[in-house]
Each structure stands twice: as structure tokens, then as C-alpha cells.
Amino acid sequence: MNSRVVLTLVSLALLVGCTRSSPPEAEAPHFLVGGDISFLPEIEDHGGTYSDSGGEGDPVLLMKEHGFNSIRLKLWHTPDGSYNTLDQVRQMAARIDAAGMHFFLDIHYSDWWADPQKQIKPAAWDDLSFDALVDSVYQYSHDVIASLRSQGTVPSMVQIGNEIRPGMLWPEGRVDGDYDTPEQWDRLVTLLEAGRRGILDAAAAEPPKIMIHFDNGAKNEICRYFFDQLVERGLDFDVIGLSFYPKWHGTLDELRHNLADLTSRYDKDVYVVETAYPWTFDWRDEQGNILGSEADLHEGYPPTVEGQSAFLSAVHTIVRNVPGGRGRGLYYWSPEWIAVEGVPSAWENATLFDFEGRMLPSMEAFTGRD
């Protein structure tokens, strides 16, 4: 074990061991830069390690040293396994807090991945009436935040649902296709409001920002349609979160236009809470990669470390330059998802670490550091 690792472990031990009676409130950074690192506990449990030019170290602290000031974690209701659970989130939240970083929670309201293709409600809620479902959303949201509050790690920002363009908690909160009706939008807003109230009631004097997360970050027309429905129904939320992957969502110019329009139209700050780009088309394991062909690229940005760096620098600049300073943050999705024995990766070529867990130079481009 090298000296850097020893110092890191000692520092963490001191941070965790310190009395947390009434620490002074740290002012939140004006601009948040971070990543969703929800795979990290599983990778570390299977022997994965991370390093930069200074050697091996705690990846949370390595990312902080290279410009991250925030970490996003996803939470599943009752997953099949020991990861993405509330207990696991609590452990990671304590680690994020010990590192002195901003904590951002992504509640999926599902037992598994929730995204535009699927918004499957937890099995425990399958047979509930709509009123009982609303109550369950409130109570679950409340209990999650109360549990985190009990250990002093209330998240500073919480998104209610993940990429909810088609709604959430299907079929009750579904709003795409044949479900795009006034009655279904009313139901979706009722569910979102229940989640919001549960979060804020549990947080009490430490209210997190409430985010609504939409996937198509470069598609202005459908963004407007979605958020118009929520605003017309009086949903109270703080900030807009968007995903942006060229493979699915469009171009950098379209992203720039959409961010400017949404912040002006709704008078809200905006975050790009998911983006990524491949640094190679090679692979380490036998699992196919999600970003693995020329069709997945943005014109002008090759699948190289230099291409990844240039793309991320461009996204960073766009978010930083939203008119009125209303672009408030940028998050990389799964910068840590390297492939290790027992944990295959469909993202190994789109991380911010190489196949051996060594930090790539593109980390500096993402964080906007020279």
C-alpha cells in the first residue's frame, strides 16, 4: 500500500470519527460538477481499484481532487440484490459527506431501472388503489429522507423519478401514447406532488432542491410540452434536470438552444444531470457496449480520449454559458463503471477511467479545469 493510500484512509477515519454535533453549514457551490457513481460499491466489492498520476486512491477523493464537487446516487425501492438499496445509499452518503461533497439523490420509484422505456412501479405497490399509491409515494419519500436525515446526510438535491418523459409508476402515472390525456397528467402531477411533500416534510429545516428529470435534453418542442403540462397543473418544483446523449437526443447546438429556452420560459435553473461520450470502441469484457458504433457519435468528435475531452469541454461550456447564469450543474453518468471480474460493464468505453481504473485526461475537460 503506497503512502497516498495510507494518508487517504487516515483522513477518512478522522473525518468519520469527528463529532458531528453542529458543523457549520458549507455554502453550496455555485456550479455543480459531478457524476452518478452508483456502481462504485459493487465494483469495489469485486476488487476494482482506481488511480491517477499520483497512484491508487479512494475514487471519491480522486474525483474531488480533479474537480468534482457533487455526487449523484440512484435509489431503487426493493431491488433484487444488495446494491442501490437505501442501506447502500446511506453508506455512500456518509462517504460523500466525509469527503465534503454535495449529495444529489435520484429516486427511481421502481425496483429496477426507470427510464423512458420502462417506469415499472415497485412490486410492493402493484395492487394498490390510486389513493393508496399516492399515500405510499408520500410515505416512502418521507421515510427515505428521514433515514438520511437521521445520520446527518440529507441530500442537497432530489429528483422525483428518473427520466420521466413518459410519466412514472405505470400505468397510473403514465402519460405517453394513448395515456396522453388530461386525466393521466392530473394523476402524474398528483404523484409528483406526493413525492415532493414527503421529501420536504422529512427534511424539515434542510429542504433539498426538488428536480424534475427529463431525458431529451436537446429536443425543445417535447420538453416544452412536458413541462407545460406540469406547470399548468401547479406543480411546485425548483429545478429542471436533463439528460444529453447525442446517440438519442441530438446535437450540441440543439442542447444550447433548449437550455436557453427552458430557463427563460419557466424561470428555473437547469442542470444536465446525465451525459457521457466514448473514449474508445475497444472493450475489456464480453458484454456489448451501449455506445459502440459510429452512429452513436456526435459529428466532429471521434471515439478517442481527445474526442471525449473535446465533447465534454463543449458540453461544459454550453451549460456554463446559459443566459443569466441559469445553467447550474453538469453530471457524468457512470464515470466509474469499469469492468471487473464479476461485474461486467456495458459502459467500459465511456467512463472517465481506462480499463485498468486509471483516470483519463478527459476528467479535466469535464470539470472545466486546464
Task: Show the helix and strand layout.
Blueprint: H1 3-17, E1 32-36, H2 40-45, E2 51-52, E3 55-56, H3 59-65, E4 70-75, H4 86-98, E5 102-107, H5 130-150, E6 157-160, E7 167-168, E8 173-174, H6 182-203, E9 209-214, H7 220-232, E10 239-244, H8 246-249, H9 252-266, E11 269-275, H10 305-320, E12 327-333, H11 362-367
Parallel strand pairs: 1-4, 1-12, 4-5, 5-6, 6-9, 9-10, 10-11, 11-12
Antiparallel strand pairs: 2-3, 7-8
Folded structure, characterized:
- The chain has 370 residues and is an alpha/beta fold.
- It has one domain (28-367): TIM Barrel, CATH 3.20.20.
- It is built from 11 helices and 12 strands.
- It has helices at 3-17, 40-45, 59-65, 86-98, 130-150, 182-203, 220-232, 246-249, 252-266, 305-320, 362-367, and strands at 32-36, 51-52, 55-56, 70-75, 102-107, 157-160, 167-168, 173-174, 209-214, 239-244, 269-275, 327-333.
- The strands form 3 sheets. It has an 8-stranded parallel beta barrel, surrounded by 4 helices. A two-stranded antiparallel sheet has the order 2-3.
- Helix 5 (130-150) packs parallel to helix 6 (182-203), helix 7 (220-232) packs parallel to helix 9 and helix 9 runs parallel beside helix 10.
- The longest helix has 22 residues, at 182-203.
- The protein is globular and about 55 Å long.
- The two termini are 30 Å apart.
